Fold these 2 entries.
Entry 1:
Amino acid sequence: MAINYEEYVAGLVAKGRAAQKIAEGFSQERVDELTEAISYALTIPETALKFGEMLVAESGMGIAKDKQAKMYGKVKGTYAQMKGKKSVGLVDSNKETGIDTYARPMGVIGAIIPVTNGEATPVVKSLMAIKTRNAVILAPHPKARNTNLAVTEAIREVLRKFDAPEDLVQSVDPDYVSVECSQQIMKQVDFILATGGTPMVRQAYSSGNPAIGVGTGNVVCIIDETVDDFDKIADMLVRSKSFDNATSCSTENNIIVLEQVYDKWAEAMTKTGAVLIKENTPEKDRILKALWPESPANHNLNRHIVAQSAAEIARIAGVDVPEGTRVILVEENGGYGNEFPFTGEKLSPVAGVRKAKDFEDALDKMLKILDYQGKGHSVSIHTKKDERVTKMGEIIPVCKIVVNQPQSLTNSGSWTSGYPVSMTLGCGTWGHNSISHNATWKDLLNFVYVSREIPSWQPSDEELFSDKIRKAF
């Protein structure tokens, strides 16, 4: 019998609306107690590891201990940045403008969950919803359906323990997980919080309902000639690129190194667990075919290499690498696009490497890579020259620039970064997104603005317009 997804989702939404109606009457103290309890319960070490192991077993992707660390960082970080913040009732009163601001919930949120971060994302999005007195329906990737249900049940258990309606957080039943079900959720909810591939995000934006989505990642990193501690840089790059087998869209996919320091950088990388595949070698061809079997006809990534270890990818490719290899670097000094696929996102601990003559040449290469893939998302640089960072901020079409830090461990917020902790990274109009910032609980609020009369602030023409402009007319 064919599944009636419209009817099934309508049932979820109805239960969510009933629960949300109750939550709308929650006090700030009640909301904060629930978010604190969920954050603590889901980051108990054995619980966090259990869900990491479950997702690795179900999806065949990533590293359980790294997923446990992700739960610690993302869930605790999300709670830490919402702790003590107002999200209920009067949240601001500005005497100067006469404007009072009241925070109100949106209703039922549809949360699309990617398989790559299927352990922490459900918790983070649930915290965002409960902080703002919304209900949420968690729609997972098919390869994370059982993990998503287990995480959801753990959250619902906390809600029951604290006498809150458990239907504030619901998961799609594993038997109903599908593209069709996610599409129905996006049609029927009040707001969509979408994390995943570009096609899915574009569906969210075209659903007819308000949405926040993210763009395609393809991080480009520059190593310039001013750096000197290559061991430190190598450690950052290898940790970032190998974390959870590069499930994050924020891993360094392309590394541009100024030729003056290329050899020192390469030596440090090979000492730290990377292997460098040279240009115009059989090994490069084998890695290429392992990642993109149909290249150059298309750039369809081989799903069997996604979020696999460097050693496993080398085995699939038939390439010998030293024991302990964590990252594969592949020289790509040719062109850009489908005929040079190392230019694009790889969703694995494999990075393309290019040499640049100088900083201007590096910027030019970075722009060409982003023109092919990754515009709007993020880039990074290792440098001692602040003016170069300024130049990048002025001309590179991305929403996040990371300086002298490991990209994937920084982009979505960290304890040593000011970026908001988030699992949904806005990429601006460059990435076909509606926001440029990391989405947080504040993005799930409606605001009511109340105006009271204040003394006139109307300026005279002499105060408003300069002499130069007035005399020109």
Entry 2:
Amino acid sequence: MRWFDSDFDYVQEMIDSWNKKRKKVRISCFILAALLIAAGILTVAFPIRIFAVIQYVAAAAMIIMGIYHLVSYGSMTYYFRDSMLLVTGILNILIGIMILFMPVALTVEVITFMLAFLLLFSGAQKLSFGSRLRYFRMQHTGFLTVGGVLDIILAVIFLLLPFTTALAMNYIIAAYLLLGGIVVLIEAISMKR
């Protein structure tokens, strides 16, 4: 356990760490956003004819997003680490693996609830991280709050209407991929020194 040191400048430590890794993180965010948006568009454009291909692309995108969350958690400084980021990374990877290997009928039923919990944890993590950044007077954190609120609203819809969302799972996955890609793209664009 690390003790709080009042003489140490934790904010400056985060700024220095961020400035060292910003370019690599920004490029990886652009690539991830492009993959997520492309997977979402393909899922909307070809819902029936190439469902198997879309299933693999969506699974790969979810797994990549989960790995991105785990890497983000590992690269954050100690006082800014959020365990919810770790949970959402693991859930994204599990959902990606489920989409990849499970039969379609079983996947649709189980994935509805897992996606709801993923969205709930993801929304809570975004709200928590945004409030922490605002506490340290970081600017331009409104997109985290908006993304967190949208994730929680979508999670509540999934939990209240599980059978309806199961019927529309293809479009829900597309919407999740598109929204996730847009949020990551906004994060990449707003990354500054």
